[in-house]
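Hey team,

Filing this mostly as a record. A colleague (T.K.) asked me to run one chain through the structure pipeline before their review meeting, and I want the input and output archived in the tracker in case anyone asks later how it was produced. No errors, nothing strange. Just documentation.

Input sequence:
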Amino acid sequence: MPKLKVDGIEVEVPAGATVLQACEAAGKEIPRFCYHERLSIAGNCRMCLVEVKPGPPKPQASCALPAADNQEVFTSTPMVKSAREGVLEFLLINHPLDCPICDQGGECDLQDETLAYGKGHSRYSENKRAVTEKYMGPIVKTVMTRCIHCTRCVRFAEEVAGVEEIGAIYRGENMQITSYLEKAVTSELSGNVVDLCPVGALTAKPYAFEARPWELKKTLAIDVTDGVGTNIRIDSRGRQVLRVLPRINEDVNEEWAHDKTRHHVDGLVRRRLDRPFVRNKRGKLEEATWEAAFAAIRKVDAGASVAAIAGDLLDCETMYAAKALLAAMGSSLIESRQTGMDYDVTNLASVAFNSTIAGVEEADAILLVGTNLRWEAPLVNTRVRKAIKRGARVFAIGPETDLTYKVEWLGNDLALLGKLPAQAAEAIDAAKKPLLILGPGALKGGHGAALALAKGFQRPATESDAAWNGFNVLHIAAARMGALMLGFAQKGGIADIAAAKPKLAFFLGADEVDFTAFTDSFKVYVGHHGDAGAHAADVILPAAAYSEKPGTWVNIEGRVQRGDRAVFPPGDAREDWTILRALSEVLGHKLQFDTHDQLRAAMAAEVPALGQEGLVRFDWAPPKLSAKASGPMSYPVKDFYLTNAICRASPTMQRCSAELVHGESYAEAAE
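Output structure:
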């Protein structure tokens, strides 16, 4: 480990570290535009110049210079100060004076560093260069005259997203960053280039001219558009969410978020249910008061014939309140797997992502079964790409699709699990940390088939490594793991609920259910959007979306996470648990909590793991189903951008679907 001095401070850094990293270890801030911790080193902006001895008598780029023993680094000498001023003066030669109309204003690296390290004036008086705008799709807005050619977007597209559709053309001062043939970038991670761009060249198109950062209230929350549990920050003004940005969490999402996470927010104010509705004798839904809606439910002589089905976006508190209400009414008919899956849940480790999300990077042989990882969990897909860079081989069983990396496809038959082809079996047997990801395409009939392989993905602890469990189940619903921890599962799945023919059925934000199986039930929809569940309901009770209530969610690996309320629900809508609490009193089965804190305490008393944030480790036992499953699989996610009610209400997600999934073309206004 090299030892060196930075401005007289002695530091020791790991082998292979750069001078820039050594400076940061010493507590010195080094300005940069092109360098990024998660991308390869480009060394082309020259903003990170420092003076190094021994070495040539000139400033050197610290991001590309390896740290070495006995180096002396100086970060604030007159030579360094003059060099940084010169770099900024050159960068600003062609950069337009757009700050008053630029969406990056207030969060712009170029603004901040010009203020801190710039000269304050320019000696350049010639005309500035102008660059035509490029088209990058419905997510990314371009003003390429502002571009300083840091190439962060190019490196992200190639190295992280795996979609090499952004690059540089021409040379010297004529260089331009553009997408391939100026078509929409087809990556589901494209919105991250907006965060990476240190100037205003790439900004968020749906958020253009909406707000300044100092106007926004910032709320910490958890993303519910997939099962990964991306840590996000919700930025709101008044009663409207204006944007969502990722927060850094190395164990979950690093600092990335996919486009659905970022840009579904315009769906939060469209197609909203903001008052109760009751279906009249003519079969039409008509507006009603809360009292009238509750009275209509009370008229149903259900007794204990009551069921509750939880949707994909639901928080644990709402599910616990529903479970408590049904238990008070004498029913245990609760389910969360809306689409008919019925895998074994007697042991939660057999349905969890046991290696953890970050652990995927350590795998040296990966088998994907029934999963289109790119659409079902894009941020797990990026981890697989990192594992490949470390030498992992990837095999897959399922319909062939583009996962952005090399995959050895074995076929589309679950029977292959019982006897893997030789090349896959040998690689997995030889691997120190083999990994199985069992996706939703295989869960219906293939979970039991994975039994034959479950033990093959276990490795005992050694002197150098801890014990390894590479058996992973991938859920695509944010509510799924929390629901399973709360017992929202019947032995035969939702088919058991339908077979019981409940007289009263609560659909808690559940829009993916086959409602024809519940034609004889009185259907109560508790949700926030006028989607399929509301169309089928006899009574609609308007609830809060995830951004409008505090809640607990559990991600695929069993990590308990909590989000706060960013805004209040619209109109007469209320938080889900308060609706169930009020209804319980009308039904004569009063729930024993009056505040959210009391509800959370009661939930933690029943399921202690939900009482505090952090990773829950489940004791391992393989799934107890038949190992004879066979036949072809299909992927349940047919359209990445329209997987839930909020996204289907979002104009941005609708346009992404039309353009990026279905190939429709959009002309810009000038065309």
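Quick notes for T.K.: The radius of gyration is 27 Å. The first strand starts at residue 3 and ends at 6.
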